[in-house]
């Protein structure tokens, strides 16, 4: 197998195979793969007319084959590759549907350990747009305070406001990033590149202004499953009451018409982020895990 580094130039090739398949998981958006590559040492190969990615998660692990090609033969080639390299056969980002497909192809020879920290939060688009109901009453109150306290506007991200959005992100970083928090700095790096290359990556973006100043921004794109939109980036100044729920709602209202679900990605075990994501009452959690052979030896 010939593995290559995912880049902006390889996005077209990646999308050709990825868009042949369907999943609500955020892991298979080519923009995410490209943006996070430098932190996860991701490489990809086209095997049996399917897309395969490998990363340094859990040592070395592989994604489920995506595309209309022969997935069983592609996985058999991964198994052979692992034998040659003398490494265990591990697959990451495995959903319950993918686990079922593995059992159908190979039988019950695998075990999957699902990780709560890696589960995607999936919401009903309509509920995020309207925030109806007693459980979301607090969100509506925060939005009302924001509207009462500010002259506000929403804009699509474009070439005219791009630099201003980048400046807002850098100000957010200064205010909210501990110099020792490497994961937070990685996230800011990804957010910055998302803003710089939003057109090349095929991302939609939105910005929220309060009294003329950008106080919130968000970027995302459709998932491989056509009924779901994935939000990759959301930043707002936490000291401005209502800025976060306001950019959340406005981005949904303006960019997600026609979608049934919104995937707001995982919380990675961060307590504050988990509390915030749970407060919006997800419709369901999209569980993802690591798949291994029940036996340590691949036969």
Task: Explain what you see.
- The chain is about 40% helix and about 25% strand.
- The protein has twelve helices and 13 strands.
- It has a seven-stranded mixed sheet with strand order 7-8-9-10-11-6-12, sandwiched between helices.
- α8 (about 160-175) runs antiparallel to α9 (about 180-195).
- The longest helix has 15 residues, at about 70-85.
- The two termini are about 20 Å apart.
Task: Describe the SSE topology.
Layout: H1 11-18, H2 30-35, H3 37-40, E1 43-47, E2 50-55, E3 61-62, H4 71-85, E4 90-94, H5 96-106, E5 110-114, E6 120-124, H6 125-130, H7 137-149, E7 152-156, H8 162-176, H9 182-196, H10 198-201, E8 204-210, E9 213-222, E10 228-236, H11 243-255, E11 261-263, H12 271-278, E12 284-286, E13 289-293
Helix pairs in contact: 8-9
Offer a few descriptive terms.
299 residues; alpha+beta; globular
Mean pLDDT, as a whole number?
95
Strand content: 15-25%
Largest sheet strand order: 7-8-9-10-11-6-12
Order of helices and strands: HHHEEEHEHEEHHEHHHEEEHEHEE
**What percentage of residues falls in helices of 4 or more residues?**
25-40%
Shape field: globular
Cα separation of the termini = 20 Å
Radius of gyration, CA atoms, in whole angstroms: 20 Å
User: Segments where pLDDT lies below 50 for 5+ residues?
Assistant: none
Content-based structural category: alpha+beta
How many H/I helices?
A: 12
Extended strand count: 13
The biggest beta sheet is recorded as: 7 strands, mixed
Quick recap:
This protein has 299 residues and is of the alpha+beta class.
């Amino acid at each position: 197998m010939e593995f290559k580094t995912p880049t902006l130039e390889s996005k077209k090739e990646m999308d050709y195979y990825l868009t042949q398949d369907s999943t609500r998981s955020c892991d298979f958006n080519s923009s995410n793969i490209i943006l996070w590559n430098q932190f996860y040492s991701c490489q990809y190969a086209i095997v049996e007319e399917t897309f395969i990615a490998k990363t340094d998660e859990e040592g070395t692990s592989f994604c489920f084959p995506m595309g209309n090609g022969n997935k069983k033969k592609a996985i058999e080639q991964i198994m052979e590759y692992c034998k040659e390299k003398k490494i265990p056969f591990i697959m990451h980002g495995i959903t319950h549907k993918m686990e079922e497909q593995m059992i159908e192809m190979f039988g019950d020879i695998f075990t999957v350990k699902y990780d709560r920290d890696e589960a995607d939060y999936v919401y009903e688009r309509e509920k995020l747009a309207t925030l109806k109901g007693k459980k979301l009453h607090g969100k509506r109150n925060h939005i009302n305070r924001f509207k009462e306290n500010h002259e506000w506007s929403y804009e699509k991200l474009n070439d005219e406001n791009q630099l201003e959005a980048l400046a807002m992100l850098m100000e957010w970083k200064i205010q909210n990033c501990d110099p020792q928090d490497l994961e937070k700095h990685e996230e800011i790096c990804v957010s910055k590149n998302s803003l710089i290359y939003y057109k090349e990556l095929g991302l939609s973006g939105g910005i929220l202004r309060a009294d003329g100043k950008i106080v919130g921004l968000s970027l995302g794109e459709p998932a491989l499953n056509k009924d779901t939109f994935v939000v990759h980036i959301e930043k707002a100044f936490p000291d401005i009451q209502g800025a976060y729920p306001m950019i959340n709602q406005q981005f949904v209202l303006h960019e997600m018409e026609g979608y049934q679900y919104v995937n707001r990605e995982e919380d990675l075990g961060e307590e504050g982020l988990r509390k915030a994501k749970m407060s919006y009452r997800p419709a369901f959690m999209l569980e993802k895990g690591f798949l291994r052979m029940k036996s340590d030896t691949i036969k």
